[in-house]
């Protein structure tokens, strides 16, 4: 048995050396911690807080370094300058989508989010065209969000000020907005099919079909039925989960900071009042509320390390040579929590997005939706939803926590590929 173990270890080490030499023969990758055979650097990463581990490694290896997840290298970019250089300045060269085993198994390289090459280009172009034709970014979609916000308000009123878990209630509104775009129809919150969809967004299931296109017999076309279904699922999951989690996390932060909530509600009363629904034109007159929403997104750091990119070609990057197909990890945490741009970045402070006169202040470091060629397709829609839904909630309700705000934990429950808040309950008290 001992001899067998030794042979396995030796064989594993030889395989590792072979792959290591093969990789380095193709390019000069950035330095990084020495990987172990088979497992690479996985044991040096805290899987419950990957971004924290990456920040610590960046202190030793600088803004560009290499990690091995298993036997495959991943080039990590840390800090605004390095991330900007990859996502924006050289966005075309790094526009590939990196490997993510779970997504690779489910999506099979189809859809918008995890596709590459011509499939990605054609699918993204087509999806943007269809979404715009169906109202995304126009007044028509704003009206749909306003109508859905009223439905959400009515659903919250039915809680009668009793403690409730807002998780599903906050997902219904963005879910219905996406459904109204795709299906041209919204659903009642009591509809069993709608509830099933809301509960199973994290499952990869083909639950619908659509007559968006009539497919031609074109061997060059990427518009297959499978690709269409995967694309629809991408739109649903990305368009619903990110917004609902941001709203849920945002309310938790507002419970923690009642003084911030009070300032937002004062601004809502002054600009919007109570006799009409908020609209997007109001945002320019509500700098504090705008700053709060941006600070919520900055603070929660929803996608700490972005979705993996990949080198679309052999690239000379700084003094390194990165082979085509190499996975690229961009630390959005290092940008959103940059101490020079956002003093005391671990503190929730809307002042990060306000100038000395109280006007809203933009920041190039705000990359909550990523940036460059792979920026979130639904960024405009998400921004609109977050403003209209959050303002509508605070227009009609006072948020009452069940514990002392000082005892509310706003650190993420998990911070791996995404940031998830702790479970909490809240009372929506009508005003």
Automatic annotation (TrEMBL):
Keyword field: Endoplasmic reticulum, Heme, Iron, Membrane, Metal-binding, Microsome, Monooxygenase, Oxidoreductase
For this protein, the record's Pfam families field holds: p450
Q: Which GO terms describe its molecular function?
A: heme binding; iron ion binding; oxidoreductase activity, acting on paired donors, with incorporation or reduction of molecular oxygen, reduced flavin or flavoprotein as one donor, and incorporation of one atom of oxygen
Q: Name one GO biological process term.
A: xenobiotic metabolic process
Q: Which cofactor does this sequence's record say it needs?
A: heme
**Which Gene3D superfamilies does the annotation name?**
Cytochrome P450
Compartment(s): Endoplasmic reticulum membrane; Microsome membrane
Superkingdom in the source lineage? Eukaryota
Annotated residues that bind heme are located at 376
Give the record's membrane topology. Answer: Peripheral membrane protein
An example GO CC term for this entry is: endoplasmic reticulum membrane
Q: Which family does it belong to?
A: Belongs to the cytochrome P450 family.
- What this protein is called in its record is Uncharacterized protein
Q: Which organism is it from?
A: Muntiacus muntjak
